[in-house]
Amino acid sequence: MKRSVLTRYRVMAYVTAVMLLILCACMVAKYGFDTGADLTLAVSQVHGVLFMIYLVFAFDLGSKAKWPFGKLLWVLASGTIPLAAFFVERGVRAEVEPLVADAPVTVGA
After folding, report:
1. How do the domains of the chain map onto residue ranges?
2. Within 13 A of 77's CA, how many CA atoms are on the CB side?
3. What is the pLDDT of residues 1-51, one digit of tens each?
4. In what residue span(s) does the DUF3817 domain sit (predicted)?
5. Three-state secondary structure readout of the chain
């Protein structure tokens, strides 16, 4: 497995988690303080697009790492739970890095 597969997943896990926290703050502002409705709409749409990209990269990593369906489902769902993606990403990285280190290095021409 290429290191880029893990790197793509890690970047999108962090970006998705941060955007979800920003979206939660916007929702508190919108419904708790009746302000920022336009910002909440924009952040929710950006988060939705980034979450779809996260799903693609997480599925790609899971299929290459040959995860069972339950583990793959947990990693995919962790992007919907505030703060969960940070913790799940650390576990995924610890599990997948040995697979990346064992992969043969190829030199392209």
Report:
1. 3-18+44-102
2. 6
3. 788 888 999 999 999 999 999 999 999 999 999 998 999 999 999 999 999
4. 6-92
5. CCHHHHHHHHHHHHHHHHHHHHHHHHHHHHHHHCCCHHHHHHHHHHHHHHHHHHHHHHHHHHHHHCCCHHHHHHHHHHHHCCCHHHHHHHHHHHHHHHHHHHCCCCCCC
